[in-house]
Amino acid sequence: MKFSSSLLALLAASLAEGHYIFSHLIVNGKAVGGEYTYIRKNSNTYMPSFTDEIVNSPDLRCNKGARPGGSTQTYSVNAGDKIGFKLDYNEFIEHPGPGFVYMSKAPGAVSTYDGSGDWFKVYETGLCNANSPGQDGSWCSWQKDRLEFTIPKTVPPGEYLVRVEHIGLHEAFKGRAQFYMECAQLKISGSGGGNPSPLVKIPGIYSANDPGIKFDKWNNPKPNSYVMPGPKVWSG
């Protein structure tokens, strides 16, 4: 059976609809580098990972196939800079769910670091309408093309993996929350002085049965609250 090129393009667009990948680094509102210049490239492109295959896997750190030692460069920034992770393909976040940023200080060069050390959460975005988690537009990240955070000014200087993540909850009720995550390699300068906490390991931040992971947005009556998964945010 033969398919026309236009039909194949239509099928590809249909498969990609709603999926996304954080492949562009933004610093203080400006794009730096190109696709994957400073972000480790994964092997499943814009496709998500699902709950049972990812929450207990080392791939939860930076995504499938995103390993140290590749061509990813390390970008120098300052504590206090605003960092953004922009979606590729001119996509927007069109799944309901929370977003997060975690950081892990490498013991040496971040280019060779596998992320097996300690992590801490520096940002999370959840509901803008706290009483309606079942409504897609209630999520603050809905229809955004990026997630952004400010590096705490007291973060200890050094080289870091900086992990962005969004969790799509539309299929979470059947154990298929969709995980989208990438890691940037950053060298952070500053005066330091902070003590990030709590420190956690990845995997280990989530369980498949966490209420914020196994969440039923379709329940009747509609849910009226949501419990953020993972550790508390360290603000510096």
TrEMBL record:
Residues 1-18 form the signal peptide. It is found in: Secreted. Its EC number is 1.14.99.56. Its cofactor is Cu(2+). It is an enzyme of class 1 (oxidoreductase). The keyword Disulfide bond applies. It comes from the Eukaryota. Residues 19-226 form the Auxiliary Activity family 9 catalytic domain. It catalyses: [(1->4)-beta-D-glucosyl]n+m + reduced acceptor + O2 = 4-dehydro-beta-D-glucosyl-[(1->4)-beta-D-glucosyl]n-1 + [(1->4)-beta-D-glucosyl]m + acceptor + H2O. Keywords: Carbohydrate metabolism, Cellulose degradation, Disulfide bond, Monooxygenase, Oxidoreductase, Polysaccharide degradation, Secreted, Signal. One of its GO terms (cellular component) is extracellular region. Its main location: secreted. It holds the Pfam family AA9. One of its GO terms (biological process) is cellulose catabolic process. The keyword Oxidoreductase applies. One of its GO terms (molecular function) is cellulase activity. Has a modular structure: an endo-beta-1,4-glucanase catalytic module at the N-terminus, a linker rich in serines and threonines, and a C-terminal carbohydrate-binding module (CBM). Lytic polysaccharide monooxygenase (LMPO) that depolymerizes crystalline and amorphous polysaccharides via the oxidation of scissile alpha- or beta-(1-4)-glycosidic bonds, yielding C1 and/or C4 oxidation products. Catalysis by LPMOs requires the reduction of the active-site copper from Cu(II) to Cu(I) by a reducing agent and H(2)O(2) or O(2) as a cosubstrate. This is AA9 family lytic polysaccharide monooxygenase. It comes from Patellaria atrata CBS 101060.
